[in-house]
TrEMBL record:
It is found in: Cell membrane. The chain crosses the membrane at residues 39-64, 111-132, 144-163, 169-189, 293-313. This is Carbohydrate ABC transporter permease. It is a multi-pass membrane protein. Residues 107-311 form the ABC transmembrane type-1 domain. GO terms for biological process: transmembrane transport. Gene3D superfamilies: MetI-like.
Length: 328
């Protein structure tokens, strides 16, 4: 509300008014900066847009470069001629990759390992985190301490190998799936989510309606935890798809190798072939050229499945990324 008050004036002068804002105790309102109102928001918008565009280019262009490099002549890549478009278009690298039957078998193995390992990890983390979030769980602090200790103390690779061997899991699918099934950090995030978003009153109301703990968890807790579930699936999908070290250590049968390990072996063989052909200049150059094509093609082959799947799960990622945050 704007009030006007007369101000002293000389005889014959027209009375003037001073603008007073309600709630300021009669003090005149401070003069606003017109230039700040006019230019602050546009400048902020332009700077933010510029930074985001630079970030997008920095992320997208390397992926795009790998794609065009996989169908370009390696000599053009080494000469710096490949920037925006392929030079000397060729699909020889992809033909070499997919002509090897071990590639398709490795792809199938990776799909199986990733799906099974992700399912096992998500189920165990959700069940364990919910149990640890229950304040009526006897000894939950002790159990949580045992999990946290494993984040700081590790028996090492030899101890891990001995455990897998003594459990009879060597050269089996379980040696890839089970050793890293439960990530403690993800367990802590899930537990914090359940503590902050599943109140005890809700469980008490369900118990009054005759629901036991299993029914409450399956029909009430899980539907309320969709962002958490999607986040856990995304994390474990990426980790399990890119994993190859456990397979390298625990698997001896090449027919059970995942895609990442198969592609690694193909690349090593290509480099070995190039090195072995150093005696003949032409054969060495051809082997080196094929090795470069295979290298870029392998990156595309191993990355495309994730690029096709993850965008469909992005809907819940923004919510899931903030799960486990402390609430005031």
């Amino acid at each position: 509300m704007t009030l006007t008050t007369p101000t002293p004036h000389a005889a014959g002068d027209v009375p003037r008014t001073t603008r007073l804002d309600r709630g300021t105790g009669g003090v005149p309102a401070p003069r606003r900066h017109a230039w700040r109102d006019r230019f602050a928001d546009p400048v902020f918008t332009v700077l933010t847009t510029a930074v985001l565009l630079i970030a997008v280019v920095a992320i997208v262009y390397p992926l795009y470069f790998i794609v065009i490099a996989s169908v370009s002549e390696p000599s053009a890549i080494l000469n710096g001629d490949v920037w925006l478009w392929p030079q000397g278009f060729t699909t020889e690298g992809y033909a070499r990759i997919f002509s090897d039957p071990t590639i398709l078998r490795g792809f199938g193995n990776s799909v199986l390992y990733t799906a099974l390992a992700t399912a096992v990890s998500v189920v165990t983390i959700l069940c364990g985190a919910y149990a640890l979030s229950r304040r009526d769980l006897y000894g939950r602090t002790f159990f949580m301490l045992l999990f946290v200790i494993t984040m700081f103390i590790d028996g090492g690779l030899i101890a891990r190998y001995l455990v897998v061997r003594d459990l009879g899991m060597l050269n089996t699918i379980w040696s890839v799936v089970l050793p890293g099934a439960v990530g403690v950090w993800n367990l802590i995030i899930a537990r914090s989510f359940f503590e902050n978003n599943v109140p005890g009153e809700l469980r008490e109301a369900a118990q009054l309606d005759g629901a036991n703990d299993f029914r409450f968890f399956a029909q009430i807790v899980l539907p309320l935890s969709k962002p958490l579930i999607v986040l856990m699936i995304m994390i474990h999908l990426v980790a399990n798809w890119n994993a190859f070290f456990d397979a390298l250590i625990f698997l001896n049968d090449e027919s059970k190798y995942p895609l990442q390990l198969v592609l690694r072996n193909v690349l090593i063989q290509s480099e070995a072939t190039a090195a072995g052909g150093a005696g003949a200049l032409d054969s060495y150059a051809a082997a080196q050229r094929l090795g470069e094509l295979i290298k870029y093609g392998m990156i595309v082959v191993s990355t495309v499945p994730l690029l096709l799947v993850l965008p469909f799960m992005q809907k819940h990622f923004a919510k899931g990324a903030l799960l486990g945050a402390v609430k005031s």
